[in-house]
Amino acid sequence: MDSVTLASFPFLNGASAMAERLGADLESLLQSAAYEDARSRGRQRVLDALRQSDVSDISLQAANEFERLLEMMSYTYARMIVSAIDDRFLTKRYALAESVRLDRNLGHILSQGGEETVISVARELNVSAVSTPKGLMMPFTDFLRFSARIKSTDWKLVNTEVFDGYVYLPGPSFCRVLQNALQDRLDSELPFDLPPEVEASVRPSATTISEELEELKSRYSAEGLGEVTADLFPPCMRTLLANTQNGMNLPHSGRFALTSFLHNLGMSSEEILLLFSESPDFDESKTLYQIRHITGESSGTEYTAPECATMKTHGICYEPDKLCGSEKVNHPLVYYRRKAYLERRNQKD
Ligand code: SF4
């Protein structure tokens, strides 16, 4: 593969051979002044992921061979930063961002007639792609493995064209499957163990990015729910929120109740997403899909939090207190408003 392709897709096997050929090694990447641009771009990759769930592109066509090498090495450096920080939310977001970039770049290559390159990339992601006069195809098993979490009915196997065990996919859909394949690979590879001397070298970069990560998280933490006041939450929602933030998985009914409750109080999907980021099974794209479904952004139906009777049926009415027992409270949102009213009245008195 040529150096532009390897710099564009630095996870390919040929990338390490290129690095070796050009005399790049780990020590140079970590220490040498000649590699400062690779380290800087590596930091940018992680920051891009954090800020926009995407990794920005740089122009590679006009770059020389060494500049392409730096771009390739920046991916290695970014992975080391993510591993040093070792935060579930960041790791997931980085995996998503690199895979979104892959999708975009493959789409561009396809539009320029680069089908063979897309097939080579697919094969390295364990997708057995083939080219036919009709277009690109992949085994239906690969299709199912990597598209299962895309919930739109267009992606159901029955709604695709299958020939002899292979699924025909239009170019953008084909690239979208490869996006998921890379995301899964990065999810499973990261974070990796860093030798102490490598960890020490990347620590300054990791610390700077950690600070931005913590700042982003704290903006939406239980103490900082914006206009929403956690002290006014009923016991059920306080428990669900605390469990999420302590890294416990919530039952489906609990996720639904908490998401709809927070949405009904005015929190945005992005704010709610961050609250769920500590769950052990956190998957950003899947969680955002579920949130947008509940908030009506994708479903067209805006759901309201369940009333107390339903919460009790699902076993998620945790430790109801005295206010829960009052005649007026039959819904967590009523509890929230009633408590706000009582607190205001107390303050006046
Ligand atoms: S009674 Fe209602 S508001 Fe109180 S904890 Fe149970 S479900 Fe929540």
Describe, in plain words, how this protein is organized in 3D:
The chain starts with a helix and ends with a helix. A four-stranded antiparallel beta sheet has the order 1-2-4-3. The chain has three domains: 1-86 and 195-219, no CATH class; 107-190, no CATH class; 223-348, no CATH class. 60% of the residues lie in helices and 4% in strands. The longest helix is centred in the N-terminal third of the chain and has 24 residues, at 88-111. The chain is mostly helical.
Helix and strand topology:
Elements: H1 3-8, H2 13-21, H3 26-31, H4 36-52, H5 65-85, H6 88-111, H7 115-124, E1 130-132, E2 135-139, H8 140-147, E3 161-163, E4 166-169, H9 171-189, H10 196-219, H11 235-245, H12 252-264, H13 269-276, H14 284-295, H15 308-313, H16 332-348
Antiparallel strand pairs: 1-2, 2-4, 3-4
Helix pairs in contact: 4-5, 4-6, 4-10, 5-10, 6-9, 13-14
The protein binds iron/sulfur cluster.
Summarize the structure.
By secondary structure, this protein is mainly alpha-helical. It has helices spanning 3-8, 13-21, 26-31, 36-52, 65-85, 88-111, 115-124, 140-147, 171-189, 196-219, 235-245, 252-264, 269-276, 284-295, 308-313, 332-348; strands at 130-132, 135-139, 161-163, 166-169.
Note the overall shape: globular
- The largest sheet has its strands arranged as 1-2-4-3
Mean pLDDT: 89
Sheet with the most strands, sense and barrel status: 4 strands, antiparallel
**Low-pLDDT stretches:** none
Q: Work out the helicity level.
A: 55-70%
From the alpha carbons, calculate the radius of gyration and give it in angstroms.
Answer: 24 Å
Secondary-structure content class: mainly alpha
Output the helix-strand order.
Answer: HHHHHHHEEHEEHHHHHHHH
